[in-house]
Amino acid sequence: MNVNLRGRVQRILDVMVREGYANTKSEAIRLAIINFGDEHMTEEFLVKKKLDRIDKEIEHGKRKVLNSKEALGEYSRHLE
């Protein structure tokens, strides 16, 4: 894959290589992607995102919320 980078991105890559954070620009890009994943793709973040999506589905009537009796069906008699 070839990517054309200019401006600020190019300057950041140059600094990362010059300062020894990475040996090549490709390695610097890989490190940046990993860093992004570590900051934004944590399990906590992904769970929150899914719960927010479920809340919106409920709000728009696309998902039904059951009470305990509805969820248990014929076994709801054991709740009493």
Give a quick rundown of the structure.
The chain has 4 helices and no strands. By secondary structure, it is mainly α.
Q: Which spans of ≥5 residues are poorly predicted at pLDDT below 50?
A: none
Distance between the termini: 63 Å
Give the overall pLDDT as a whole number.
Answer: 91
Question: How many beta-strand elements?
Answer: 0
DSSP helix fraction? 55-70%
Annotation field: number of helices = 4
Explain how this protein is built.
- By secondary structure, this protein is mostly helical.
- The chain folds into two domains: 1-40; 42-80, no CATH class.
- The chain has four helices and no strands.
- The protein has helices at 7-18, 25-40, 43-59, 68-72.
- The chain starts with 6 loop residues before the first helix and ends in an 8-residue tail after the last helix.
Give me the secondary-structure topology:
Blueprint: H1 7-18, H2 25-40, H3 43-59, H4 68-72
Characteristics of this structure?
80 residues; mainly alpha; 2 domains; 4 helices
